């Protein structure tokens, strides 16, 4: 049996899976937590990876390994390879003004969409580099190279010889704001515009390129960003749309042609197979459920039961879930809001239902944005931690207006990284076909009024000062 390892270094934790390269069968796994916050020193990721690997039985017997990680995070290294400052994560919104400035300087949203397929928001690395140059010039001056979380972990696993050994892939590079999926090239002019100069960037490998070797001689795959890895893990093809409910909410598909949405709703990313990954991302997803459970002082199972005990539409109660600001639509300073509160709707069941429906309505807006870009939708797959909620599974078809498929629970990002590692180990033009378990289908009558009420409420939010 040829074994491969996949790593998911997410916002909240590090997960490792060891799988059979040919069949995808799970052999063993491990996990370890990450610290909270929107900036984290990369050493914390390395420590968590070490713990997760130990729990998973190590890498001594694997033929290949790949790392997937949260996108966009800014990791700055000095000339000696030392971390200059804690990494700013994708969900750090302090660079919101930098994003607006960069958009204006280049000539507007359409100019950015044409240049990189996306309109930068505070999540993108390019905006964080502008913030660093403006607010921490000493740290900016020390920065000799800039990479992403998965780049840095891959580099460390390969021995961290020198900065020239840094590599990345198309999927993660496409979220920086200075690499174009359409041309497969860095836009050094955009990097210089943001940062004032051109630090070293990782070399971009092909989908099954070799990034280096582990101490046992096993191959290191190129790795990728979390969403591109999830697409590999679920095994989606053009026409499939994945709605992922994790720390962030994402709606994405695999396409044969690049997209360029000047509205900024759809990010025109690349995937991990040589194709493209048009994607909509919301900042608020599973944590909306966490917040609702905390407010009601119940666990997630009881939150689900309460939500399903209320009628569709929650008798008009609407929750707009901008609890951490929002990325799509681009409202980094927005706050959440509850509308339609009456004596009738002032119950735990109504609030639970409104929280689930509000989160799903925000994701349904993302589905609409994809179809507006010409994406063909043949089926929707629901994944992520939030998809484990029975209420989410049963309410989603009513909100999305179509049946929803739920694959078996799994670590799809780590699984995607493992599938990439298997591709590197086994060779071939495409990653190996894996069948990881049966899907469940959920259906419900569409309830258009849910989204209509949400649309009427979503713009009436208050911004933090």
Major sheet description: 7 strands, mixed
Overall number of strands: 24
Compute the separation of the termini in Å: 58 Å
Number of helices: 15
The residue-averaged pLDDT reads 94
Strand composition percent: 15-25%
Proportion in helices = 25-40%
- Apparent shape: globular
Secondary structure class reads alpha/beta
Extract low-pLDDT stretches.
none
Oligomer category: single chain
Write down the Rg. Answer: 21 Å
Structure description:
This protein has 465 residues and is of the alpha/beta class. It is 35% helix and 21% strand. The strands form 7 sheets. Strands 1, 2, 3, 5, 13, 14 and 15 form a 7-stranded mixed β-sheet that branches. The chain has a 7-stranded mixed β-sheet with strand order 18-19-17-16-22-23-24, with helices on both faces. It has a two-stranded antiparallel sheet with strand order 4-7. The chain has 15 helices and 24 strands. The chain starts with a strand and ends in an 8-residue tail after the last helix. Helix 4 packs parallel to helix 8, helix 11 packs across helix 13 and helix 12 packs across helix 13. The protein is globular and about 65 Å long.
Give a quick set of tags describing it.
465 residues; alpha/beta; seven-stranded mixed sheet
Write the layout of secondary structure elements.
Elements lengths: L2 E7 L3 E8 L5 E8 L5 E2 L1 H14 L6 E8 L5 E3 L9 E2 L7 H11 L2 H8 L8 H11 L1 H6 L2 E3 L1 H9 L9 E3 H4 L5 E2 L4 E2 L1 H8 L7 E3 L6 E2 L5 E2 L3 E2 H9 L5 E6 L3 E5 L13 E4 L5 E7 L3 H11 L3 H10 L8 E3 L16 E3 L8 H25 L6 E5 L6 H11 L3 E3 L5 H15 L13 E3 L5 H10 L8
Parallel strand pairs: 1-5, 5-14, 5-15, 9-12, 16-22, 22-23
Antiparallel strand pairs: 1-2, 2-3, 4-7, 6-8, 10-11, 13-14, 16-17, 17-19, 18-19, 20-21, 23-24
């Amino acid at each position: 049996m040829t074994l491969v390892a996949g790593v998911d270094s997410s916002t909240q934790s590090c997960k490792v899976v060891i799988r059979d390269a040919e069949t995808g069968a799970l052999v063993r796994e491990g996990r370890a937590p990450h610290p909270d916050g929107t900036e984290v020193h990369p050493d914390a990721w390395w420590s968590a990876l070490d713990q997760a690997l130990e729990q998973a039985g190590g890498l001594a017997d694997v033929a290949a390994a790949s790392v997937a990680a949260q996108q966009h995070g800014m990791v700055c290294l000095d000339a000696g390879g030392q971390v200059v400052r804690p990494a700013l994560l994708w969900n750090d919104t302090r660079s919101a003004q930098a994003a607006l400035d960069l958009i204006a300087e280049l000539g507007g949203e359409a100019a950015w969409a044409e240049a990189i397929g996306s309109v930068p928001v505070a999540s993108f690395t390019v905006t964080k580099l502008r913030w660093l140059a403006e607010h921490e010039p000493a740290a900016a001056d020390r920065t000799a190279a800039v990479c992403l979380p998965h780049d840095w972990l891959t580099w460390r696993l390969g021995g961290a010889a020198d900065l020239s050994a840094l590599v990345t892939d198309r999927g993660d590079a496409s979220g920086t704001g200075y690499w174009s999926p359409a041309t497969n090239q860095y836009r050094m002019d955009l990097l210089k515009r943001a940062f004032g100069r051109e630090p070293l960037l990782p070399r971009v490998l092909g989908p099954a390129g070799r990034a280096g070797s582990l101490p046992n001689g096993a191959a290191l795959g190129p790795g990728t960003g979390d969403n591109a890895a999830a697409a590999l893990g679920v095994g989606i093809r053009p026409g499939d749309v994945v709605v992922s409910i994790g720390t962030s909410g994402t709606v994405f598909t695999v396409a044969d042609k690049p997209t360029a949405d000047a509205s900024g709703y759809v990010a025109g990313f690349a995937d991990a197979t040589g194709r493209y990954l048009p994607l909509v991302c919301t900042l608020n997803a599973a944590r909306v459920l966490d917040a609702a459970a905390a407010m009601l002082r119940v666990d997630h199972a009881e939150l689900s039961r309460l939500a399903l005990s209320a009628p569709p539409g929650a008798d008009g109660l609407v929750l707009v879930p901008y609890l951490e600001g929002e990325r799509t639509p681009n409202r980094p300073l927005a706050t959440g809001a509850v509308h339609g509160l009456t004596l009738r709707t002032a119950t735990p069941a109504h609030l639970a239902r409104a929280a689930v429906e509000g989160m799903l309505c925000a994701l349904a807006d993302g589905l609409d944005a994809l179809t507006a870009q010409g994406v063909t939708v043949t089926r929707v797959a629901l994944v992520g931690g939030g998809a484990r909620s029975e209420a989410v599974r049963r309410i989603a078809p009513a909100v999305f207006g179509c049946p929803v498929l739920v694959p078996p629970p799994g670590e799809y990002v780590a699984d995607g990284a493992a599938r990439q590692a298997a591709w590197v180990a086994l060779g071939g033009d495409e990653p190996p076909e894996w069948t990881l378990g049966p899907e469940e289908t959920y259906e419900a009558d569409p309830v258009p009024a849910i989204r209509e009420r949400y649309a009427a409420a979503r713009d009436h939010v208050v911004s933090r000062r």
